[in-house]
Amino acid sequence: MSLIYRLASRNLFHDRLRFIATVVGIVFSIVLVTVQLGLYLGFGRVVTTMIDHAAADLWIMPLGTKCFEDPSTLDERKRFQALSINGVAQAADGLLPWNLVEGSLDALAIPGAVAIDRSYFGRLGVSGIGDSAEIRGHKVEVRAVTNGIRSFTTTPYVFTTLDRGRTYTGISANKATYFLVRVSPGADVESVRRGLKANLSDVDVLTTAEFRDRSRSFWLFGTGAGFALFAGALLGMIVGTVIVAQTLYSSTKDHLNEFATLRAIGSSSVYIHKVIICQALISAVIGFCFAAAIGVIVVAATADTALPIVMTPALTLVLFLLTLLMCVISAVAAIVHVTRIDPVMVFTR
User: Fold this and answer.
1) What b/e readout covers 133-151, taking b as 16+ CB neighbours within 10 angstroms?
2) Are strands 138-146 and 113-117 parallel, antiparallel or unpaired?
3) How far is Cα 10 from Cα 3, in angstroms, rounded to an integer?
4) Which of 126, 149, 178, 181 could form a disulfide with 58 if both were Cys (CB 3.0 to 4.6 A apart)?
5) Arithmetic mean of pLDDT, 78-107
6) What average pLDDT does range 4-28 have in this prediction?
7) In the predicted model, what is the mean pLDDT of residues 197-221?
């Protein structure tokens, strides 16, 4: 294997400009795939951020609700019906803010108090605790500040008391969008859900995991956003494969005499194929290292944006294997060309 590696590396580094072009092609491809798949993961997390941070075992929602942002409402009477079901300990109709960096939850009890994320200060025209603003003609005052609670839409999240929230959004006093159910200690969640579905009409009763999957599926696939991200990743793979294939093919073509010599002295086709594949793997490893470094920078730069790019260990491993596969596939064209070499050409030079 040491000789194979030596032959492969010398073939690659003999023409440095061509090798640089190969690495650039791999880097471009993998960075593009990283961004697209990272956006996919980031988008999947952002669209369910409220669901993930809700202290609920079950969600009661209007029948056919597609995602968390669906504006349909329920009658307050259904909450009391839910509380009458055996095993239901609590049925709330509100979410609490998290990641508080200034103020407190108790401060929201002050008339007109709201909590907002500090990333929206500029958009909402405030600068911190004590600043005032208006929501649909109602004066509000910032009494708590969060960090990292961002909406993937253009509308920021604002937290306040339930009654004021209904007033600010124009919802009737007896209406709510969701009821968050907590089951009693020791109670079976599935049994409670069956009881809720049997006694409540025109509602969906979902676990947190089911509602998360439904919301994510709607935004990623129901709106076409997921397809667009996958299409971008596929484009990056195709571009990278073509560039690497073309470079390896050209490199092999320029070294046909050397490969013919190897054939003439008794080297098998398998041995030569290993040299070409080794060239592809060397290019893959070097290109992936550069792409990974750029990916880390991109992830850090988007960490505080509305749609961060997410990198996980599993995704990094997938990208590395994808790089190897892409480069090996690219080597096929060169291998096919080499298999047609006639060793006699060495003696005709």
Assistant:
1) bebeeeebbbbbbbeebbb
2) parallel
3) 11
4) 181
5) 87
6) 77
7) 87
**CA 143 to chain CA mean position, Å:** 32
What gap in Å lies between CA 181 and CA 185, rounded to an integer?
13
Other beta carbons less than 10 A from residue 185's beta carbon: 7
CA 303, 307, 309, 315 dihedral sign is: positive
Assign 267 to helix, strand or coil.
coil
Alpha-carbon distances of 118 from 13, 48, 111, 284, 310, rounded to whole Å = 51, 20, 21, 42, 21
DSSP alpha helices (H): ranges in the chain?
2-14, 16-46, 49-52, 77-83, 121-124, 162-169, 189-199, 208-217, 225-254, 256-264, 269-301, 313-338
What dihedral angle (degrees, nearest 10) is formed by the CA atoms of 74, 80, 81, 83?
A: 120
What is the DSSP secondary-structure string of 54-80? ---SEEEEETT--STT----EETHHHH
Q: Where are the domains of the chain?
A: 2-46+224-348, 99-160
| DSSP category for residue 157 | P
Tell the residue number behind the tokens 């055996």, with chain if given: 86
The pLDDT of residue 54 is above 60? yes
Q: How many residues does the chain have?
A: 349
Mention every residue, 6+ apart, whose C-beta is less than 8 A from residue 129.
102, 103, 142, 143, 144, 145
- Of 28-32, 91-95, 149-153, 331-335, where does mean pLDDT reach its minimum? 331-335
- Residue 254: is its pLDDT beyond 70? no
CB 35 within 8 A of CB 305: no
**Whole-number CA gyration radius for the chain:** 30
**Tokens 């995602």 map to which residue?**
67
H or E element, residue 181 = strand 179-183
Mean pLDDT of the chain: 81
Q: Is 334 helix (H, G, I), strand (E, B) or coil?
A: helix
The answer to whether residue 342 scores a pLDDT higher than 70 is no
**CA–CA separation, 118 vs 147, rounded Å?**
6
Cα 125 off chain centre by: 30
Q: What is the pLDDT of residue 59?
A: 92
Starting at the edge strand found earlier in the chain, the sheet holding 58-62 runs 88-92, 179-183, 58-62, 203-207
